[in-house]
Amino acid sequence: MKRLLLLPSLIFFLNSSLNAQVPQIERDALVAFYNATFGANWTNNTNWNTSNPVSTWFGITVENNHVTQINLSNNNIWPNLPPEIGNLQELVTLNIPDEVSFFSSTSTIPDEIGNLSKLEYLDLRSWGLSGEIPKELGNLSNLLWLDLRFNSFSGSIPQELTNLASLNVLVLSGNQFSGPIPNFTTLLLLNYFWIDNNNFQFGDLEPNFSTYTGTSGLDFVYSPQNNIGERYDEAVAVGSSRTFNTNVSGSQNTYDWYRINADGSDGGYIGSGMSINVTVNTVDDFKWFYYYDATSSLIPGLTLRSEFFKLGNLPSNHPDYDALLAVYNALSGINWDTTKPIYSWSPNNDLTFDPVSDRVTELRITGNNPITGVIPPEIGDLTELTSLDFFLEDLSGDIPIELWNLAKLKTLFLGAQESNLLRLPNGIPPQIANLQDLEWLNLTQIPLTQPLQPELFNLPNLQRLRIVGCGLTGTIPKELASISDVLAADNEFEGTIPQEFIDATGNQTLSITGNYFDFNDLEPMVLNHSYQNFFYNPQRTKDVEQDLEFLPGNDITFTIDDTRHNKFKNSKGAGDVYQWFKDNVAINGANASSYTITNAQASDSGVYYCQITNTLVPDLVINRANITLLVDASLSIDENDKVRFAVYPNPSLNFINVRLNNIDKEAVVTMFDINGRKIQEHPLKTENTILDISSLNSGIYLLQLKTTEGILTKRIIKQ
């Protein structure tokens, strides 16, 4: 077989007319391509989407003030050709193969590619495109080279491609093409025609096969092809019989049937013909996988193999049936077919079975559409599980105590539920001590209202722990230093880092970003380099996000809870540098721990925050949570103008401020819980009143303002 070589003249990276500008429509087309393919993530995106001349953009060739070549092979480019690509009407080369990343997407080639009448070289191999290729490719009368191999294209090859009279190379290998093959024997310049590893059958190849194979100078590759049909699985009782049939097009086909067991160590030829009859005489017969090989005297060198035909035991006979069925019934969205043999319930390989005991050893329920529901207690009956993965779903309710009896678990992923409603109401239970083989535990974003249990730290094989965003408070437990890989970001840890972390040797990763640590807390860890990977930037203050509304003319002061910073220096904020920002732009001169807006106007509306830095740990930033400010005169224009009021901060931990637009000697503010029970009541004698809510339980409350002009109600959140 000839080797398919790249044409040097087509892939040579030419960059003439270096400083030439191209038409705006061509620049816009390139920017659309950059955005559609996530250009910020490319391996090399030098000068792309900048004011620099297009001729300096990586991979772009400009000749005579037009874009003529795009050469971006193996550049980590997401597969998505936007329709604007059709506006590059002087384009000669479009070369975007990616044999490194192996992306997969639902994007296809846009019809507008047919506008590229000067295109000579089109290489999109291994790029992860799908769908049908457009018939508009047949408009590219100058096309010499078309390489679409190793994508996921489907459907038939467009008849319009036979119009490409200049075509030298047509490579369509490694897709899902099927159906009749157009007659390309009229393309006299065609040297390479590759259609192997698709879904073609003998009947598709027969019409022009002898011409292709008999044409001198044509490298025609058609073998192998993908397996025929889809796998057949059926649950039957012992004593049942089934007939399996062939389904291959072609006029002179021969079929041979075989069977093998799971590891291929037994079986062999069992007969020939268009069908076979199979009987399950004993349970042992459930081990067989049946298939056929089809050959044709008209298409030598090609054998088409079918997918497997498999008869399995009734699922109710499996020892894990009841537990798995309980999981299926309790969780909505699982794509299982429970009528099939149990090993083929899941098309996504959610279940793994031990080849000897036949028990379930791995249960992974992950997917693009989150699974909902409550984990059933029967999960504890899957006693041979070594891996349980419910990561990135939308489960809710309490994690059943029975789960902690799965003594053979090595990996347990329960975290990152979409709605954060999966709970451990009493923290990690002491029964976790049963999981002596556990190596990896992920509880990301599951609220842990209790301290971490000592039984967790005593697990001898635990090497990876994920407790991100679990609401853990206080000093970070020293026992975590015994675990090599810990992600504990976005909690409320604070204070001195225990010496055990500083002295740790050989540990891999510690991530504590987004906690309440300050510069003094982190300096020893940063200097000691005790972890291969130590992530600590940024940290945050204890302030919460606020939404504030004010009328123009008010003086507004923003503050930071920074009393704990550099506490060992006996001087609040010693060495701290503050910088306030509005809408991500530094405010000139706003370099104190508070910032006041005098005589606020509508132009002061925006999102404010502050960053604290210190030379103790130069690359650490401590962020104050966002304050969203609205200054708007229209706030006073409605039927309740005289009773409009503002409540801030909201949410709040200890105190809230109630601000009235106008003093009303009859004004009373009353707080109710979510059930309507009165909690507090206060007369309002000034424009600003501070209410103490520190003793309230966390939750949602209603604040009602009653004056001589009417009643208004606002919702507040107690943290």
TrEMBL record:
<dbReference type="GO" id="GO:0030313">
    <property type="term" value="C:cell envelope"/>
</dbReference>
<dbReference type="InterPro" id="IPR013783">
    <property type="entry name" value="Ig-like_fold"/>
</dbReference>
<protein>
    <submittedName>
        <fullName>T9SS type A sorting domain-containing protein</fullName>
    </submittedName>
</protein>
<dbReference type="InterPro" id="IPR036179">
    <property type="entry name" value="Ig-like_dom_sf"/>
</dbReference>
<keyword id="KW-0677">Repeat</keyword>
<dbReference type="InterPro" id="IPR003599">
    <property type="entry name" value="Ig_sub"/>
</dbReference>
<dbReference type="InterPro" id="IPR001611">
    <property type="entry name" value="Leu-rich_rpt"/>
</dbReference>
<dbReference type="InterPro" id="IPR032675">
    <property type="entry name" value="LRR_dom_sf"/>
</dbReference>
<feature type="domain" description="Ig-like">
    <location>
        <begin position="538"/>
        <end position="628"/>
    </location>
</feature>
<dbReference type="Pfam" id="PF00560">
    <property type="entry name" value="LRR_1"/>
</dbReference>
<keyword id="KW-1015">Disulfide bond</keyword>
<dbReference type="InterPro" id="IPR007110">
    <property type="entry name" value="Ig-like_dom"/>
</dbReference>
<keyword id="KW-0732">Signal</keyword>
<dbReference type="InterPro" id="IPR051848">
    <property type="entry name" value="PGIP"/>
</dbReference>
<dbReference type="InterPro" id="IPR026444">
    <property type="entry name" value="Secre_tail"/>
</dbReference>
<feature type="signal peptide">
    <location>
        <begin position="1"/>
        <end position="20"/>
    </location>
</feature>
<dbReference type="Pfam" id="PF18962">
    <property type="entry name" value="Por_Secre_tail"/>
</dbReference>
<dbReference type="GO" id="GO:0016020">
    <property type="term" value="C:membrane"/>
</dbReference>
<keyword id="KW-0472">Membrane</keyword>
<dbReference type="Pfam" id="PF13895">
    <property type="entry name" value="Ig_2"/>
</dbReference>
